[in-house]
Design goal:
Layout (H helix, E strand, L loop, with lengths): L26 H4 L1 H5 L3 H14 L6 H15 L4 H13 L9 H4 L7 H8 L1 H9 L6 H8 L21 H15 L11 H11 L6 H10 L9
Helix pairs in contact: 4-5, 4-10, 4-12, 5-9, 8-9, 9-10, 10-11, 11-12
The structure holds fe (ii) ion.
């Protein structure tokens, strides 16, 4: 069953990004609550599985989570929403477990069929996570992490602020880490080059306000991915 954002009313899932409100709460301050969460054990099991399969870009989930939480914190998300976002980021590529490694690691152009399979991963993740009631928020955020600000993304072609805010944050964090990581089809960019590219795709692929905030934050974590 498709997961659509209107099935949830929490403001975190569908509100406009805070404009200039950049709170100074350090990301690490939000982290202790994670260890108190009842979700830890089953989520950790999922994460362990995911990390063993993350051979095409080791550490991608963890780095994406760090960037996403920093950005979510900067736009004023509540601590509970930061925790949801943290786990959503860690799990965001779990749908790629349904895509063969030879496609994920292919260094040439994908065929139409292969590309369609890669594009199916947000929907596959939603189908995988939807039965897990304590991951309901994460399911929605992950389902929409490849939507684009201009409405040309997938799987639903949602546009602008109709895309859940948490998913728009994931998209910025995910894109930055992908650009600064060595991939089979492209070498890692220097972070400054990646930020310039983010600014070029702000307003088409990515939420322009979020990109602006993210660029302002990068001094805190401007280290090339290893
Ligand atoms: Fe993805």
């Amino acid at each position: 069953m498709p997961i659509m954002p209107h099935t949830f009313s929490a403001s975190f899932l569908n509100h406009e990004p805070a404009s200039a409100t950049v709170q100074r709460l350090a990301v690490r301050e939000a982290m202790p609550a994670l260890s108190e969460s009842r979700q830890q054990s089953p989520i950790e099991m999922l994460l362990a599985l995911l990390r063993t399969m993350e051979t095409h870009n080791p550490g991608h989930g963890d780095r994406t989570a760090n960037y996403a939480v920093a950005l979510g914190n900067a736009v004023g998300l509540a601590r509970a929403d930061l925790i949801h976002l943290h786990y959503a980021a860690l799990l965001h590529d779990i749908g790629k477990l349904t895509v063969p490694d030879e496609i994920l690691e292919k260094d040439g152009p994908l065929t139409g069929e292969e590309y369609a399979l890669v594009q199916s991963h947000p929907r596959a993740a939603a189908e995988l996570l939807e039965p897990i009631s304590f991951l309901r928020v994460q399911t929605v955020l992950i389902a929409h992490h490849h939507e684009r600000w201009d409405g040309t993304g997938y799987p639903y072609g949602l546009r602008g602020s109709f895309i859940p805010l948490g998913s728009r944050i994931l998209a910025v964090a995910d894109t930055f880490d992908a650009l600064t990581s060595n991939r089979p089809y492209q070498p890692a960019r220097h972070p400054e080059s990646a930020l310039r590219l983010l600014q070029r795709i702000a307003g088409s692929q990515l939420d322009p306000e979020l990109v602006k905030v993210f660029v302002g934050l990068t001094a805190k974590f401007l280290e090339p991915a290893t």
